[in-house]
Each structure stands twice: as structure tokens, then as C-alpha cells.
Amino acid sequence: MEMNEYLDVFIEESKEHIQSLNDHLLELEKNPTNLDTVNEIFRSAHTLKGMSATMGFQDLADLTHKMENVLDAVRNNKLSIDSNILDVVFNAVDELESMVFDIIGGGEGKKDVSVLVNQLQAIEKGESINLENKDANNQESKTSTSLQIGNLDQFETAVLQQSAEKGFFNYQLTVTLQKTCLLKAARVYMIFEILEQIGEVIKSEPTVSELEDENFEFDFTVILVTKDSVDEVKQKVLKVSEIDTVEVEEFSLDNLHNSETALVEAETELQNNVTPNNTTSKKEVKDSVKEQVTSKTIRVNIERLDALMNLFEELVIDRGRLEQISGTLRNNELQETVERMSRISGDLQNIILNMRMVPIDQVFNRFPRMVRQLAKDLDKKIDLQIFGADTELDRTVIDEIGDPLVHLIRNALDHGIETPAIRKEKGKPEEGVLKLNAYHSGNHVFIEISDDGAGINREKVINKAVSNGVITLDEANTLTDSQVYQLIMESGFSTADQISDISGRGVGLDVVRNTIESLGGNIMIDSNNGQGSVFSIQLPLTLSIISVMLVEVQEEKFAIPLSSIIETSIVNKKDIMQAHNKQVIDFRGKVVPLISVKEVFNVPGELTDEEYFSTVIIRQGDKMAGLIVDTFIGQQEVVLKSLGNYLTDVFAISGATILGDGQVALIVDTNALIK
Amino acid sequence: MSEESKQFLKSIVFQLNKEEYAMPVDLVGSIERMMHITRVPGTPNFVKGVLNLRGVVTPIIDLRSRFGFDDLSYTESTRMIIIHPNNMEVGLIVDAAYDVIDIPNEKIEPAPEVVGTERIEYIDGVAKLEDRLLILLNIDKVLSHESIKSLAK
């Protein structure tokens, strides 16, 4: 019984570990010699084993144990990774996942995995040591850990070249702080201030932000462009206290090129000399991987976050009042305190706002693995392309959207994309493209799943629907294409000629539609026979942060979503033309209609006759329009809120947001304005 | 005691155009002083806009214009009564809100029929208490979307 309270934690963590296993295995597949990845996999497997053994899920623990053995062998270079091993390990992870899901469903996580266990054991015993490989790996990791100025990008090289031509000196400075230095960031700041006075810092290693976070040992290297001599630079820098040594060397671009070519032989040199080379990119890759793994999380009930959010918003209102009061009282001390408080609460606001938001990547990240497997099962070649994985969605929506997406992807792979042979016949590339695209638009998040497969056959759908009794033949003839496509989401409908185990049990798409509609969204299907189909899911943002441009019209403030803005411009009155009694301007060769926000929203106030108009150019699809406003206030991240259940369907307003001063600003639905 | 209290309607009393109105107190979330209201374009004119009520964007209705009374500039005593009918959150602007009283059920009479008035539909009845006459509002009808549409025309 007492285990129950740990069960939730166990399930959540197991899911995370399995995801991490999948991620790293995919990475390993691309880069089979990277032992760091193997280590990560090993770690996840090991933790999983420990947890499941503690919780008494013996099968789970056994399988992980065997998997761990294989990984251990790989780690110790007793085995080299090949696609056979990977397949077996992938299968094992699949089994682990299904066991975990069994446990979630209230089962005991029992499953017959003896076949897999035997396979894993066989792999473990089959010794094939590849010593050469190991050596190469070791050397690689050695060189990449030494301290170097990283790859200079084109821009930086260009700056260095130009400065050399204009008689500036390029120096490479290595500053070592004293071991006793307490405020490293402060010293770094002082050094940088001096450097900025005498010249310009082109590059630093570690990066400036890392330095500011004290994310370094005691030394760092910068490339400086200045007119001062070596000694002058050195002396000036040494004026900062708590510095141990300063080494200044001439930095020449010739070195850079030489060292790049000489890299292969010069490995030992590289460790001692601080010379630019191109292994740093590898180091960066490794660093980013590490960061991902080591980021720690805690679980917080969403209700608590909501409460925190509301409380904080009240605080913001009071902050606004305090600012006003201090403004009128003109008491210096009060003003200082209030300013400080404003700053801090600003930071706090950002943190709280972002806390509830989760990048959709959390859902997307399991798809590469799934698509790989499905492609193998179906004998199809699939290129999965993911866009907008950083689109943030409310956590509650993220939790629900996974299953419908899985369904749609399975569907696209099974019914949509054809087998390589058929594709070749049709003159398409053998590899089918499956695109996942997520983006914000107005008050909604759109997720599009598009494939370049066979598309939906109208006739086939109608025949099926009629024979299944979903519609009558008469009805069918009056339906538009998109109405026909919607039919495939009626319950009891399956268009696949043969029922396969991937999809096509006829219970699929209507479930998808129901789930999405229960989230307050909808799903649209667009298709071109022979060209592919697009399933586009529209989801509301119950609580979502978007970037907006705040504009002012008379006394009223409006927020225009940044995602629909192309640019802002000032339009001269004489550039405005009349077309069919409508005001238009010529915007980069395109005729763009002008919309006066004042008129559309009936903003009270006099219509003034001005020479110049501040205009926000907005876009929807390939249509554009210019919104005339009075003033641009600026760009801001805001929380989208609905107008409530009472005010529904307000024209061209998609929601509201609460500004820093506690007032409400309306968010403009640009899509409605363009239509 | 408890049997008796069942026959009372605990009501909040507010003033509008020098008349006294009442609505059930359990609908009421809070009573607020006036604060900044953001106008929402394209809504009927009695919808004054929305305001930020502790982080919740709340629509505000001016009961004066809803009932077709003359507009009056807001004073120190003007209040917003925030109510929560049917999962909604709406604020009503009234001239003043000052009292919570128990109206005995037997004192409630149906609204007097007046020929040719359509406004009658949002009045549940009237209650006569000593020298006061309280008009009992039916909030659902006041807020109903059909009435919004017909008024917007």
C-alpha cells in the first residue's frame, strides 16, 4: 500500500527516462562512436532498473538489467554498436514503455520478454572488440576538452581582417584570476569595461554570458581589437585587482588558417597552446547535450501555479499604483525602492508566465523514434521534418494532444505516403516527406501534419460513407470537397483497403476529432488527390504567452500579435492611393489596403488630418493589410486571456491581456481584419 | 428558526435611477469601486468594456444603459457588483450598493403587468417592505444573449 504514493513519481520518472533513452539511441544511431551518448543511455537505464526493482516490477528490472549489460559492454569497448544491436535495444525500450503503460493502467508491468532477453544476452556474449575505434574516441575527447578560442564565424573573421588592414592590432588575451577571487563575475565585468574602453572584444571563450554566470574556472580568453600596444593593454588590465596573470599575444588570422589545416597532426600542441581550431563545435554539441540531461525539474500542481499567477497579477496592479504614488510624491528614497521593486517583479513575472508553458517539443520529441519504427514496419521511406518545436503551449493542452497526433501520424504513414515502388511509378522521390509544423496565430495554436502521399480520394470516401450508411448518395453529391474529407472523421469509417495493425480499425479519426473538440479546438483536412494531404489542428490558448506589439489609438491600447506583423512603417499621406474607393499603399511592389483601427473599432475621438500615418503591416497567408494606428508603444510578451463566457464572438478581437499597469488591453485578431 | 429562514430571500439591494433593486446574494462575488474599464468595440452600448479583476478579465455591464435609463456620470457611490451566474463572470454598474436584507417570500408579488413593455421579462417580481419597494431582477434574463442581440439591433 505504501508504495502507491511513490507510484506516480515512479511513472513520471520512468516516462522521462524512456524518452531520454529514445532520444539518445536515435543520436547514437547517427553517431555510433560517441561514447558520451552511450554513457547517458547507460545512466538512464541504470536508474530505471533501480527504480523498478525497488517498486517490485521484476520483469521491468530484468529487461533493463540485460540492456544495461549490453550498454556496459559497449561503454567499455567490448562491443561496437551496429544497427542490429540498436534494433534490439530499440525493441527493448519499446517493451519497457509498454510495461510502464501497463503499470499506469493499473497492471503489474508483467510481460514475457524472454526473447528479447535472450537476444540481449547473445549480443553481450558476442565479443567483437574494436580497439582502433576506442583510441580515436579517446583522442577526440581529449582535444575537445582543452581550452581554445572557438571557431570564428565569417563575420568575426571579416572584422579581424578589416581591423588589421586599418592599422588596429588583434590581440589574444588570456586572463587568469587569483584563486582567492571571490566575485569572479564582478572582476570579469571590470576587465571587460577596460577592454571596451581601449578597443572592442570580438570573441570570448567561455562566452560572455557564461562568464557573467561565473561559469568558468579561473581563466578566460578574449580576442581584442585595439590600437594600444601589448604592454599598454596588459598594464591597463592588471589595474583590476585579484588578477593573477595576463597574457597578451598577437592574434593573426594566418595562424587561424594554418592551425586549421595542421589540426590533424597538432593534437598535443593544441592542448598546450591556445589556438583557434574547429574541434570546439564538437565540444559545444557535447555541452548542449549535457545541459539537457542535467536540467532538473520538480513537479508542481497546476492549480498552485494558477493561484500564484493570479496573486502575482494583483501584485502587479499594486505595483502600478505604487509607481504612480511615488511619481507624485517625488521622494527619492521611495522612488528608488519602487523602481527596484518594479524591476524585480518584472523578472518574477517572466518566470511565472513561462512556468506554465511547455514547448510542444515535449510531444514532438517522441515522433522521430515512432516514425523510424513505423517506416521500418511498413517498408516505406520517410523523411520526418519538424518545424516550430519551440512553440509553447499550455501544459494542460500538451498533455492531451499527444495521442491524437500519434494517430494522425500513423494515419499519414499508413494511408497517406505510398510505398517506394508506387512513389517511383508516380514520379515522386522514393522518400516520402511527413511535415509537422506548429505555430501561433492570433488566439490559437496550429499544428499541421502534412504528407506528400496519395491524398484523399473523394470517390473512395463517398463510396465508403454511403456503403457504411454515414450519408446517402444524394447528400454525397451536394458536399464540397472539404465536407467530404471531414467524413473520414465520422465514427465507423476506415478508408484503408486493408486493415493493418498500424491504423485502420475504423475507430481512429473520430476519436481524434472528439479529443480535439473537447479541448475546444477543431481539425480541418485539406487534400489534393495524388499530392498529399494536410491535417490542420487548431487549438485555443487557454493560457498562453505571445509576443505582441502594443499600439495606441487615441487613449486606447491594442495588442497586435507579432506573428502576424511583417513590419511597421510610416506612410506619407501623399503615398496613399485610392482603389475602388479604398485606401491602398504600394508596399514593396504590392498593393496593400489600409485599415484605420480608429474606424474599425469606433474609437471615440476626433479624426485628425495628419501628414504621416504610423502603419503596422500585417499578413495572413499571402494577403496583407496595413493597420493605421496613432503610436507604436513597443513589443511585449503578454498572457492571452479570453474575454469570458459572456462576451463571445467580438469582431476582430481574439482576447485580452493585462498590461503591467493592471489595465486590460485587447488583442486584435488580424485574421478577421484581412478577410 | 431554520424553517422560517427558508422563506426569506437573502438579497443584495442596490440603487439605480433612484429606485431600489434586489438580487439574490448568493450570485454575488464581490462589490467593487469603479476602476479603469477597457472599452470593447463592436459590443452593445450597455457593455462598458472589460476590466482586470484580480487577474480575471471581466466584462462590465452598465445597468443604466441596459435598462434604457439616462446616462449619469459615475460618482463616489457608484459600484460594480460582480456576479457569477452560470459559469460566467460579469460586473454590473449600479448607482450604489449598500444593503443586504432578507425579503420574506410572502412579500414578493409578481411584477405589475404594463401593456406594451418588453422590459418586464427581466423582472421577477416586486417586494414591498414597509415603505420600500424593491424590484427583484432576473439576472439570467438581464444577461441573456437573445436580449443582447435584440438590443444591439
TrEMBL record, chain A:
The protein's annotated catalytic reaction(s) are:
ATP + protein L-histidine = ADP + protein N-phospho-L-histidine
Might you name a Gene Ontology BP term for this protein?
A: chemotaxis
Q: Which CDD domains match?
A: CheA_reg, HATPase_CheA-like, HPT
Q: What is its EC number?
A: 2.7.13.3
Q: Which keywords are on file for this protein?
A: ATP-binding, Chemotaxis, Kinase, Nucleotide-binding, Phosphoprotein, Transferase, Two-component regulatory system
Tell me the ranges covered by the CheW-like domain, including all copies. 545-675
One GO cellular component term: cytoplasm
What is the protein name given in its UniProt record? Answer: Chemotaxis protein CheA
* Organism of derivation: Natronobacillus azotifigens
TrEMBL record, chain B:
Q: What is this protein called?
A: Chemotaxis protein CheW
Q: Which InterPro entries match?
A: CheW, CheW-like_dom_sf, CheW-lke_dom
* Segment forming the signal sequence: none
UniProt record, GO biological process: chemotaxis; signal transduction
Query: What high-level taxonomic lineage is stated for the organism?
Result: Bacteria, Bacillati, Bacillota, Bacilli, Bacillales
Q: What CDD domains does the record tag this protein with?
A: CheW
Q: Which residue ranges does the record assign to the CheW-like domain?
A: 8-148
Show the GO cellular component annotation of the record. cytosol
Pfam families documented for this protein: CheW (PF01584)
